[in-house]
Amino acid sequence: MTRPNVSPQWRKSSHSTDTGGECVEVAELRPAIGIRDSKNPDGPVLLLPDNHWKALTRHIKDGRYDPA
Predict the structure, then answer these.
(1) Domain count of the chain?
(2) pTM
(3) Where does the record place the DUF397 domain (predicted)?
């Protein structure tokens, strides 16, 4: 019997490049969403409950955090 892959699948924005830009990666780490710095994958991970992640992404898409 094979064991399922239980490693988190970290992903970053399709707008990210490999030129050393500042990016974050996210992964589903049930029951939360993990957020980490792509330049430091072994560093700390911020965990947000699903509903907080959804609110954060909604606010970003709505432009709430855009500079004035």
Answers:
(1) 1
(2) 0.74
(3) 9-61
Assigned domain for 55 exists: yes
Residue type (1 letter), 36 = R
Residue type, 48: L
Q: Assess contact for 61 and 47: CB atoms under 8 A.
A: no
- Strands (E) across the chain are located at 24-29, 32-37, 46-49
Q: For residue 50, is it within any domain?
A: yes
pLDDT of the residue at 21: 67
pLDDT digits (tens, 9 = 90+) for 9-63: 999 877 776 666 678 899 999 889 999 998 899 999 999 999 999 999 999 999 9
